[in-house]
Design goal:
Layout (H helix, E strand, L loop, with lengths): L17 H6 L3 E7 L4 H5 L5 H6 L1 E12 L5 E16 L6 E15 L7 H5 L3 E4 L6 H12 L29 H8 L4
Parallel strand pairs: 4-5
Antiparallel strand pairs: 1-2, 2-3, 3-4
């Protein structure tokens, strides 16, 4: 959902040719309302109206770099920053998480094989045959930057005390033991 009256959101191109962007060494940046990123908003904790007011900052920078083979490589660096509310999995209260994450995308024409060299690369291969929606790119990176298990460092309220060890209850008799007791000796 696009939030009205958010001029920085207009800076998010819906169709950007990343190869051309990198070749020209262009840069874009801005702020976007969390309400304009529905998949991200669904991962957060809070009322929709409060989430719609939250904003995250993004920067996109294209560049050329000489690769190991001497050929120029097209790269795009995406940096996202913000502070987002999530549900603490320990105390079940709102926990604010500061995100500051960056990724460098190596633009390729087709997805490479996942071999050892590709897995060790500092950049992620990104198929750039078609224009991309920068809002989706920003949203994807924010989602990847979220903690898997959000928790406060120190929960603001005391957690309920755990119940003590249960009294050991006698184990129910095995049905086979009952049958063995019914069996008459010959």
């Amino acid at each position: 959902m696009k939030m009205p009256g958010t001029p920085s959101d207009a800076g998010l191109p819906r169709r950007l040719n990343l190869k051309e962007f990198a070749q020209r060494g262009r840069e874009l940046q801005g702020d976007v309302a969390v309400g304009a990123l529905p998949r991200l908003a669904a991962s957060l904790h809070g009322e929709a109206s409060r989430l719609a007011e939250l904003r995250v900052h993004w920067e996109l920078r294209g560049m050329l770099r000489n690769g190991a083979s001497g050929q120029a490589q097209l790269l795009v660096r995406l940096h996202v920053r913000g502070e987002l509310p999530m549900l603490c999995q320990r105390c079940l209260q709102t926990s604010w998480h500061r995100l500051d994450d960056a990724v460098t995308l190596r633009l390729v024409d087709q997805e490479p094989e996942l071999d050892g060299e590709e897995l060790e690369s500092d950049e992620e291969a990104f198929c750039a045959l078609h224009p991309v929606d920068v809002a989706e790119l920003v949203e994807d990176q924010l989602i990847l930057a979220l903690p898997l298990v959000p928790m406060h460092e120190n929960c603001p309220q005391e957690l309920p005390a755990r119940a003590g060890p249960r009294e050991l209850e006698p184990a129910p008799a095995s049905p086979f033991a009952v049958l063995a007791g019914l069996r008459k000796p010959n």
